[in-house]
Amino acid sequence: MRSAAVPAQITTVEDKIAGNLTLQQMLFLTTPAFIDFAVYAILPHMLKLEPYKIFLMFTITTLSCLMAIRIKNQILFAWIHTILNFNRRPRYYVFDKNSLHLRKLWSESSDSIANVEEGNGEHLQRKKVSEISNEDMVIAQSLLGSQTLNISFSRSRKGELYVVLSEIE
User: Exposed end of the chain (fewer CB within 10 Å): N or C?
Assistant: First the structure.
């Protein structure tokens, strides 16, 4: 019984249809026949051979046959596609930390996720951002400027902001 090695990456193995020609090569070699017939039948002076039709059919057939040529196990069309994609990519990447790309934008609604905690570290009280009154904002701003309080910020795993106020001894 004969045994054959099965390749590990099946997607890279190309089936040979006729001789050493793959499916892509066969498509590149057969489609000009249909395109040439459409040029011959549809363009003005239908079903008559004109010089411009001959030139157009010759260029289509030549380009298609050139695209089917293999260079280093890749058809020329794949090489051209790769080179064009490489040349079309941006040359420089400029990092802008103020960009809004891929950032979640939170609206200031009553179901806001951010929380503010008030207290001396022993007893904490949670408030939603939208529930903070103007008086509380004035108190918070005066506490930020205070020399007797130590303020620390931390984030939870869910992205909640914790503010802890503790007295400096």
Answer: N
